[in-house]
Write a structure and sequence with these properties.
Order of helices and strands: HHHHHHHH
Distance between the termini: 75 Å
Oligomer: single chain
Structural class: mainly alpha
Largest sheet: none
Strand content: under 5%
Length: 160
């Protein structure tokens, strides 16, 4: 909505200044330059959120393996930098805090799912320690499954 407003800002201002449309209202309230700058900053900040939403919505069958990489990308986007305005810094802090609290209880499952997905198998969104822990967990789970499986011994096939 902000993005659309910024695109149509000239038309909105023209409509606000048109006496026929104001219908007797004497005061015209418009956004200040600071308000416009804040709106532009918000559109820029929320761009990756829009992209992630679009990715997930356009997937025919979105998979759980996408969650951790996309969450990591958003958290990276919400890292505060020196050139951020006070407003943007505050919003980044709140969004990072809220997003960081999501999926904590299933983090290992998400990492495992991503490791098993060919698109994310090297887990580039994790640090080395998390990556190693995920691969060790996968190896452990595979070994447990192997131990549970009844093993077939190869038999010589008899030809008839």
């Amino acid at each position: 909505m902000l993005e659309r407003f910024l695109e149509q800002q000239a038309a909105v201002c023209a409509a606000l200044l048109d006496r026929k449309l104001r219908k007797g209202a004497n005061d015209v309230h418009t956004l200040s330059e600071g308000d416009i700058t804040a709106a532009e900053d918000l559109v820029k900040l929320l761009g990756p959120v829009k992209s992630v939403t679009t990715i997930m919505c356009e997937e025919e069958q979105p998979t759980v393996s996408m969650i951790a990489p996309l969450q990591a990308k958003l958290l990276e986007n919400f890292t505060i930098s020196e050139e951020d305005s006070t407003l943007v810094s505050e919003i980044k802090q709140i969004m990072a805090q809220e997003l960081g609290q999501r999926y904590v209880d299933v983090k290992q499952i998400l990492h495992t799912a991503s490791a098993l997905d060919a698109r994310f198998k090297k887990l580039p969104f994790l640090n080395e320690e998390e990556r190693d822990a995920t691969f060790q967990c996968l190896i452990h789970e595979a070994a447990e499954l192997w131990d549970q499986k009844p093993h077939c011994t190869p038999t010589a096939s008899s030809s008839h």
